[in-house]
Amino acid sequence: VQLQASGGGLVQAGGSLRLSCAASGSIFSIKGMAWYRQAPGKQREMVAAISSGGSTNYADSVKGRFTISRDNAKNMMYLQMNSLKPEDTAIYYCNADLAILPHRVWGQGTLVTVSS
Predict the structure, then answer these.
(1) pLDDT tens, N- to C-terminus, the chain (116 residues)
(2) Core-most of 14, 44, 79, 87, by most CB within 10 Å?
(3) Using CA atoms in the order 93, 98, 103, 105, what is the torsion angle rounded to 10 degrees?
């Protein structure tokens, strides 16, 4: 499975962005998917996750502002980010848990910069 993240950019505080993650390869093996982010000098953290059945989970810092979704027919996952804050500035990565080895794969990351 290969993942390609896109949609990052520069936005003012209070603005919105929509990230996309395109999956290719052994799509049948994908179980849960998630978005992570890593800010400069900080550890990578989970932002939002979605199961194969559509159940979602969010970090407290983004609840009510971000929405994760997936379109299994198009092999896509999305992250709608609203009311963005400067502290949301980070490289955002998508990942997928697989039923086959290597069990987890990562996309290349897309940079989100929120100016104050």
Answers:
(1) 999 999 999 999 999 999 999 999 988 889 999 999 999 999 999 999 999 999 999 999 999 999 999 998 999 999 999 999 999 999 999 999 998 888 999 999 999 999 99
(2) 79
(3) -20
Burial 28-48 (b: 16+ CB within 10 A, else e): eebebbbbbbeeeeeeeeebb
How would DSSP label each residue in 3-52? EEEE--EEEETT--EEEEEEEESSGGGEEEEEEEEE-TTS--EEEEEE-T
Output the DSSP codes for 49-91.
EE-TT--EEE-TTTTTTEEEEEETTTTEEEEEE-S--GGG-EE
Apex CA 32: angle with CA 26 and CA 33, to 5°? Answer: 85
Phi and psi for 28 in degrees, rounded to 5?
Answer: -60, -25
Provide the residue type at 38 as one letter: Q
